[in-house]
Every structure is written in C-alpha cells, then in structure tokens.
Specification:
Elements (H helix, E strand, L loop, with lengths): L2 H15 L2 E10 L2 E9 L2 E5 L2 E3 L6 H4 L3 H4 L4 E12 L6 H4 L3 E10 L15 E8 L13 H11 L5 E4 L2
Parallel strand pairs: 1-6, 5-8
Antiparallel strand pairs: 1-2, 1-4, 2-3, 2-7, 5-6
InterPro entries: NUDIX_hydrolase-like_dom_sf, NUDIX_hydrolase_dom
GO molecular function: hydrolase activity
Keywords: Hydrolase
C-alpha cells in the first residue's frame, strides 16, 4: 500500500467519524435552570435541552426544543462553548468515538410547565427546574459546567469557552 493510499483511507475514516455540533438552551427563570430529567442505567440525571445539528441546518434551527419540552424558545446570546472528546472521559468505553462541540445559548421560554414534547430523548422522564445556587447538588451533565453556570448567573462572570469537559 502506498503512502498516498494510506493517507486517503485515514482521511475517509476521519471524515466519516466527523465532529458533531449541537445547540443547547440555557433557560433560567426565578433563579432556576430548566433541565431535561432522564432515567437510564439505574440512575437519574439532568441535561440541558437542545439538539444535534443536521447537515444544512444552522445552530438556531438545531436548538429546536419542541421535541423535548413541547415549547418554542426565544434564542438569545451564545454564552458557552463546550467540547466533548469521548475518549478523554469517564464513559470512554462507550463514547471513545464521540467528538462533539456544543454551543449553549441563553434562551427564554414563556411557560412554566412542560410536557415531554413530540419525541423526547431516550430515558426522558420529564423536565425540572433546578436552583442555580444548588447545581452542585445535582447530577447535571456536563458536571464541570455547573460551576460555570453558577458563576455566570451569580456574579455575571464566566469563561465562554469551557473546553473539553464532562
């Protein structure tokens, strides 16, 4: 096999794996963060609502929350960017192939209660408002984001690029 052929195979493999983008909604009301509550593998945890970006779709379109919340959101400013390189984290055995960049936007929603929407996430058992000042008491993923969220909403200061965190 020539170096050129080997290089082409590597490029094709990298291209197929790709980096996935997703957009997440950071929705806060009365000092509480709106989250998706999930129960999988014997445990309960929380994530931010949002979705993966599809080809031909911009990030605002990817932030469709109707599927998970049953509600439309008003998208505001970009406040955090997170990378997730699966092989670097606790679930590497399952996610070693994953490489995702998440764009987290400050959003508003005009309702207080939600249903599971049109097609909720696997394991989704509802939504829950978590007190910002108590986020460290909850299993909110990515867990390292909790301190950034607290800092942003309590002091108005936070790093916007949070890096490869879990």
């Amino acid at each position: 096999m020539t170096i050129k052929n080997l290089a082409q195979k590597v490029i094709v493999k990298v291209f197929k794996m790709g980096i996935r983008n997703s957009a997440k909604a950071v929705i806060v009301k009365d000092g509480k963060l709106l989250t998706i509550k999930l129960h999988e593998n014997g445990g309960t945890y929380y994530i931010l609502p949002g979705g993966g970006q599809k080809h031909g779709e911009n990030l605002h379109q990817a932030l469709e929350c109707r599927e998970e919340l049953g509600a439309e959101v008003e998208i505001g400013e970009l406040i955090f960017v997170r990378e997730y390189i699966g092989e670097n984290h606790e679930l590497a055995a399952y996610h070693s192939h994953a490489h995702q960049t998440e764009f987290m936007f400050l959003c508003n929603v005009n309702q207080d209660t939600f249903n599971d929407g049109d097609s909720p996430d696997k394991g989704q058992i509802g939504t829950e408002w978590l007190p910002i000042t108590e986020l460290l008491d909850y299993k909110l993923y990515p867990q390292a984001l909790r301190t950034h969220l607290i800092s942003f909403f309590v002091s108005g200061k936070a790093t916007s690029f949070v890096g490869d965190i879990n």
